[in-house]
Amino acid sequence: RRGPRETSEPHEESPSMAASEDAASSGAGPEPQQQLEQFTLLAKSLKGRAVVGVIQQALASKRVFVFGELLAMPNVQALRGTEHAATLELLELFCYGTYADYTRREAELPGLTPPQRHKLKLLSIVTACRDTAAAAVSYDDLAREVDASTTRDLEDLLIDAVYSGLVVGKMDQQARVFKAQRAAARDVRLEDVPALADKLERWLETAKSLTDALDASRLDGLDAKRAKQDRAAALGAAVDDVKRNLKDHDDAAAYGAGMGGAFGYGPGGFGGAYGEGAPQKRRGKRSRLPFK
Question: N or C: the chain end with fewer CB closer than 10 Å?
């Protein structure tokens, strides 16, 4: 079966479509979301074989990895049940499927160009990294998913996936595993939305529990901080009282010593200042007689 890109029948191509194709082939141009919007706008104004051309361009674009908005366009959905229905199914496979899914249906789907084949393999790596429950994905499992015949081919795909921003992780060549830390999101089927909503609800409950626990811990920390401040204030007040008592005691002692000196509390007794202290030794009476 010949795919849409293999047909020899010419079809009219607008300048904007040609510009989009050039940007897709060169990797330059607008951001992925903007480029996807260009494809959806084109699909909105075209029909039939022209829409097939837009789909083929989007699947070959190096910067577009989600296609849900394009798939939802009425003119794209209008391909269902027509001679171009296989292209619509191919677009759905790029949205939700993997390269292994394509190989099982290759006879009934349009052929892939090299850029499209490469992109579908990258998307398959994303799915493998997202679906695994383990911390790492083995090289053998990834090789089966993308039909990589050598380790070098698989690692080249992993490097492209990392540089494309589709996955974040590290290759462990000795253990022959890819340690995935994060993977990009892919399109979601409408029938999978309830299950996704359940996961989000569980995540929300877990996040709320963690938030409550953090709030309780924060309040406990504030209470402990206030108690520590109160203890520090009480200790400071006690130290100030001790210092004040010591100062008062020193002042009283100094005052007492001063009063004792003024009123004869010294060696001369209380009457020292008034001549009533200890008897003073009387000086002998000086003779008035001349020296003999």
Answer: C
Task: Give start and end residues of each alpha helix (H) in the chain.
Answer: 15-26, 32-45, 49-60, 68-71, 74-77, 85-96, 99-104, 114-131, 139-146, 151-163, 193-262
Q: Is 52 exposed, middle or buried (0-12, 13-18, 19+ CB in 10 A)?
A: buried
| Contact by Cβ (8 Å): 172, 178 | yes
Q: Tell me if residue 169 falls in helix, strand or coil.
A: strand
Distance, CA of 62 to CA of 78 (rounded, Å): 26
Q: Would you call 138 helix, strand, or coil by DSSP? A: strand
Angle subtended by helix axes 15-26 and 32-45, to nearest 10: 150
Classify residue 264 as left (phi > 0), alpha (psi -120 to 50) or beta. left
Q: Which of 130, 110, 118 is nearest to 55 (CA)?
A: 110
Q: Residue 153: how many CA atoms within 13 Å on its side-chain side?
A: 12
pLDDT per residue as tens digits for the range 19-58: 344 444 444 456 777 888 888 888 888 888 898 999 999 9
Q: pLDDT tens across 240-255, in order?
A: 888 888 877 777 777 7
Q: Which amino acid is at 192?
A: D
Angle of helix 151-163 relative to helix 139-146, nearest 10 degrees? 80
Q: How many other C-beta atoms lie within 10 A of the C-beta of residue 78?
A: 14
Cα separation of 223 and 219, whole Å?
6
Buried (b) or exposed (e) across 121-154, using 16+ Cβ within 10 A? bbbbbbbbbeebeeebbebeebbebbebeeeeeb
Low-confidence ranges of the chain (pLDDT < 70): 1-30, 133, 256-292
CB 98 within 8 A of CB 124: yes
